[in-house]
Design brief:
Blueprint (H helix, E strand, L loop, with lengths): L8 E5 L2 H4 L29 E2 L5 E2 L16 E2 L15 H14 L4 E5 L2 H4 L10 H16 L3 E5 L7 H7 L6 H17 L5 E3 L7 H4 L9 H25 L4 E3 L1 E3 L2 E4 L4 H23 L6 H7 L9 H9 L5 E4 L4 E3 L27 H14 L4 E5 L17 H19 L5 E7 L19 E3 L11 E3 L1 H11 L8
Parallel strand pairs: 1-5, 1-14, 5-6, 6-7, 7-8, 9-11, 10-12, 11-13, 13-14
Antiparallel strand pairs: 2-3, 2-4, 15-16
Helix pairs in contact: 2-4, 6-8, 8-11, 12-13
The protein binds 6-O-phosphono-beta-D-galactopyranose (BGP).
The site of 6-O-phosphono-beta-D-galactopyranose (BGP) has 13 residues, from loops.
Length: 488
């Protein structure tokens, strides 16, 4: 029953600023993430910025998704801080070794994000940075050597820093033009080698955190930024379809607010309203127009009036996505009175949590797949799923990660059931992250996801040596049987 459709895409997913490093090599410009420190749950990561009088501020809610950062504040690097994006786990210099390791598990797809500021260092240049383009040529060459295809995320929660500082990020329509120019460059260069593209990562996070690079995070800025990103995505999709025959476009959504806390009508209604905040992003991008319920969302967030021009409406309609992709790590519950963006959610007494408090819920993945496919009858692609855990490596770097195997076994079985029993058209699964890398939310290294252990600690110390964990061979077996071994 668990065998998956022929041609199913099996792979792993990563993001440049968490994985790649090489922040000052190859002509790369600075990125919004480069000023973000490490951190932990207790001590959240922050940005480092300098005021006119020389004093330092540390906006907790980071500048790439700002929290009313003063106009005069300029990003600055401080000697005594550690900035994980600078080296990350150094895919920049280890890509051959890493891709060989991934190929060893039988991956036929690898999701990675292109670093925007590696291609256009400030976002505003007329011509791209050839060295940056060449790096991703080399990566794709290496993938092709092993029969893997790329799944490219064009923009993974990031912005060239200069676009944030000069134009207030996605609040500006100029950034739409910069994005489209950047996409055109990617399509010209890699279009004959890449079929699947994601215009944005977890774009619905904008509803809670704000768009990249704006100094404010009020309702108006958030939903204006989201609109500008919708227009940018739709323009890219239309252009991509024209430039690359057979290309397939998705955008990626975080989909965890799954359940009402109780069957109390007020909780049910609240849940529907909160869920719609995610549908807002999927509906608009996959169907190509704003739905009537958006007015209630704008009211709720004091957005006021968003002036959507007729021209923009045409662009949205012409740039509908071909598939819907999403990340799924956990489920959340929500109840009347909770804020509409409730990242942690209410606790769920029926589920166990990871050490980071994320409830583990494999059936929720099947629920989510059905929910999306029922609503948008387009193929779906699970582009992130995995377990962040504390791995204890032995002196050789080997980790006996049975808990990860258990998590993946249950989630992949739920996925197979959604496909085989419920009839969901799911084209692939890329596990986050096949190799240990820096955590997005906490900036830690000890929150590990990989099949491959990387010898590095939270402050960047270590040899960076890569070692296969127990789950590596387990996953290899699942892939070589195309899912049949899930029943063993
Ligand atoms: C998603 C992001 C990824 C990734 C993942 C795991 O939101 O798209 O970049 O990091 O979450 O989250 P974390 O790294 O915080 O554990």
């Amino acid at each position: 029953m668990s065998r998956l459709p022929e041609g199913f895409l099996w792979g792993g997913a990563t993001a440049d600023f968490q994985y790649e490093g090489g922040f000052n090599e190859g002509g790369r410009g600075l990125l919004s993430h480069d000023y973000e420190t490490d951190g932990s749950v207790e001590n959240p990561r922050h940005h480092t910025m300098k005021m006119n009088d020389g004093s330092i501020i540390r906006p907790k809610s980071s500048f790439f998704r700002a929290d009313n950062v003063p106009e005069e504040a300029e990003p600055v690097f401080l000697e005594d801080e550690y900035y994980p994006s600078h080296r990350a786990v150094d895919f920049y210099h280890h890509y051959k070794e890493d891709i060989e390791l991934m190929a060893g598990m039988g991956f036929n797809v690898f999701r990675f994000s292109i670093c925007w500021s590696r291609i256009y260092p400030t976002g505003d240049e007329e011509f791209p940075n050839e060295e940056g383009l060449k790096f991703y040529d080399d990566v794709i060459d290496e993938l092709e050597k092993y029969g893997m295809q790329p799944l490219i995320t064009i923009c993974h929660d990031e912005l060239p820093m200069a676009l944030a500082l000069k134009y207030n990020g996605w609040a500006s329509r100029h950034v739409i033009d910069c994005y489209v120019k950047y996409c055109k460059t990617l399509f010209e260069r890699y279009g004959d080698r890449c079929k699947y593209w994601l215009t944005f990562n977890e774009i619905n996070a904008v509803r809670g955190f704000g768009p990249c690079g704006t100094r404010e995070s009020d309702g108006y800025t958030r939903y204006l930024g989201a609109h500008n990103m919708f227009v940018a995505s739709a323009k890219a999709v239309k252009m991509g379809h024209e430039m690359m025959k057979g290309s397939m476009f998705g955008a990626m959504y975080a989909m965890s607010e799954l359940y009402p806390a109780t069957c109390k009508p007020e909780d049910m209604f609240h849940h529907m309203q909160e869920r719609r905040e995610n549908w807002y992003f999927i509906d608009t991008m996959a169907r190509g127009y704003y739905h009537p319920y958006v007015k209630e969302i704008w009211n709720h967030h004091h957005v006021g009036t968003l002036d959507i021009s007729e021209e923009d409406k045409k662009i949205l309609f012409a740039g509908q996505l071909d598939f819907v992709s999403f990340s799924y790590y956990r489920s959340n519950t929500t109840k009347a009175g909770d804020p509409w963006f409730n990242v942690g959610g209410s606790s769920n007494p029926y589920l166990e949590n990871t050490p980071w408090g994320w409830p583990i819920d494999a059936l929720g993945l099947r629920y989510c797949m059905n929910e999306i496919y029922d609503r948008i009858q387009k193929p779906i692609f699970i582009v992130e799923n995995g377990l962040g855990a504390i791995d204890e490596a032995d002196e050789h770097g080997y980790v006996e990660d049975d808990y990860r195997i258990d998590y993946l076994q249950k989630h992949l079985s739920a996925m197979a059931d959604a496909i085989n029993i419920d009839g969901v058209d799911c084209i692939g699964y890329t596990m986050w992250a096949p190799i240990d890398l820096v955590s997005l939310s906490t900036g830690e290294m000890k929150k590990r996801y990989g099949f491959i252990y990387v010898d590095m600690d939270d402050k960047g110390h270590g040899t960076l040596k890569r070692t296969k964990k127990k789950s590596y061979n387990w996953m290899k077996h699942i892939i070589e049987t195309n899912g049949e071994a899930l029943d063993e």
